[in-house]
Design brief:
The protein has 124 residues and is an alpha+beta fold. It is 21% helix and 17% strand. A hairpin with a 5-residue loop joins strand 4 and strand 5. The longest helix has 12 residues.
Length: 124
Amino acid sequence: MTEAQARCLVNDRSHNRCELCGTTQSLTFSHRTPKSLGGKWTATNGIRACGSGTTGCHGWIEHHPEWAEAGGWRVPSYTDPAIVPVYLVLPWPGWWLLTPDGHYESTWETAEPAHLPPHAAVRS
């Protein structure tokens, strides 16, 4: 998959909203497994996040790696992101598996992880 294809699938899936807090401001593609660790441009490895690597939900993920891993927003390089559930507020708050074709598959679990980005409680 190309970078453009992955971005398109993730943008379409999220309806151009941050999948962690729901905002429409300053959106970026956040790799669940970072590119520097072999993460690929795929819909299962990407989430739409507000901010940059230093601000917003994207920055929170980068600065809180243990909490980000517990929420599925960060995935170790030895694990396939397609099999790791991620806690998102879109399409509604809960744990989701991200599919290769750019959709959500519910795990039916709704309990929040221990730590969320500070503004994720907004649920816009």
